[in-house]
Amino acid sequence: MQKHIFFKREYMDYHKDRFEDFSLVIRNQKGQICALFPASVDHGVVTSHKGLTFGGMLYPKHTFIQKILDWLTLIEQFYKRNGITEIHYKVMPSIYKLERGEEESYALFKNGWELTRRDYSQYFTRGRQDNIHRSRYQNQRKFNQKIQIKRVDEMTSFWKIVEENLLERYDLKPAHSLKEIQLLMNKFPEQIKVLGGFYENELIGGILFFETEQVLRIQYPTSNSKGKEVRIVDALLMHLISNYVYHYIDFGHSCEEDGTWLNESLSRYKSKFGTEGLACDFYMKVL
Question: What pTM was estimated for this model as a whole?
Answer without folding.
Answer: 0.91
